[in-house]
Amino acid sequence: MFQRTLRRKIGELLIERGIITAEQLERALEEQRHKGGYISQHLVAMQFATELDIAICLSNQYNFAYLPLNHYAIPAEILTTIPFKWIRLYSLIPIDKIGNSLTVAMADPLNEGVIQMLRQITGCELKVFISTYGEINEAIGRYFKDELSRVKEIVLADMSKLTVINEFIQTKAYTGGERRQFLRLNVKLIFEFNFYGQSFRSETLNVSFGGICFLSPVSIPVDNDIVCKVHLSPDRAVDCIIKVMRVQSRRSEGEVSGLFEIAGVFAFINDEEKMQMVEFLKSQLACNGARTTVEGKQ
Q1: CATH number given to 65-150
Q2: pLDDT, position 8
Q3: Which of 34, 173, 216, 293 could form a disulfide with 181 if both were Cys (CB 3.0 to 4.6 A apart)?
Q4: d(CA 127, CA 120)
Q5: For residues 242 and 263, is the Cβ–Cβ distance under 8 A?
Q6: How confident is the model at residue 295, as a pLDDT?
Q7: How far is CA 21 from CA 16, 17, 93, 175, in A?
Q8: Hey, where are the domains in the chain?
């Protein structure tokens, strides 16, 4: 119900503002019916609207004030109020703090789970503004240059420094772009992800050090980055960002199941949680090596 209302009202607001026409909205809805996802995503992809148009519509619909970050100077001491890991993972940035009230700009201010988490880790009440993904990413690049330089991509040169890795990773695999081939473990783990203001809970199909394949009730277009939580055990989870590389409809006994099989590579995972993933995969391989197979490209 929430999802349907959100789609309708964004389309209506864009039409009312003269940004899109009813015909363009219908074309975007048709694209959505074929590919899944969210209407705002298709409107931007088809160049009928911009990120800023969507942000302003959300601002008007949900009473979030829009904050253009390029016009705002953030004090250094404010930037440390939220750990960089969460800033990067959830596309947000702290703006100001007065007493126990922390002002935060978010690209997805509808994500109540993230807002609750921020309250817990900061001990502050939050005042939330909305900015676009582009503006927040530009601000992160401007204010966190040193932190970004320390974030290592998962590449073969990086992996060679970890002696445990060669025990279970096939290291021959670049077949173009970001695609790599790793030894994958067919293991079902609880998998949570956020996409366009909505949270989903599913399970993995297989996991490797390079990425994850999982089931999704919605189609997510290739090249999208999604924020995920992978539960390695009941009391241990890894947060990461996955870049989607492959999407296909899931079939059951020859019939379309309504689910999508999504495969992606890690676009961001910090060093500590990277090592947790290494240890998990190593232990799983030791227990289930006989059932482990190498399957296609991640």
Answers
A1: 3.30.300.160
A2: 43
A3: 173
A4: 14
A5: no
A6: 41
A7: 9, 10, 34, 42
A8: 2-62, 65-150, 156-291
- Give residue 38's pLDDT: 63
Q: In what order do the strands lie in the sheet with 65-66?
A: 65-66, 125-130, 101-106, 92-98
- The string of DSSP codes covering 114-170 is HHHHHHHHH-SEEEEEE--HHHHHHHHHHH-HHHHHH-----HHHHTT-TTGGGT--
10-residue mean pLDDT series, the chain (298 residues): 43 88 91 69 87 85 86 92 86 94 89 79 92 89 85 44 31 37 80 75 89 88 80 88 83 64 84 84 72 40
DSSP string, 183-230: -BB----EEEEEETTEEEEEEEEEE-SSEEEEEESS---TT-EEEEEE
- Which tokens sit at 239? 């947060």
Top CATH class of 156-291 equals mainly beta
Please answer whether residues 71 and 41 qualify as being in contact, where contact means their C-beta atoms are separated by less than 8 angstroms.
no
Which token pair is 96?
């100001």
Distance from first CA to last CA of the chain, Å, rounded? 34
Interstrand relation of 236-252 and 225-233 (parallel, antiparallel or unpaired):
antiparallel
Total-model pTM: 0.53
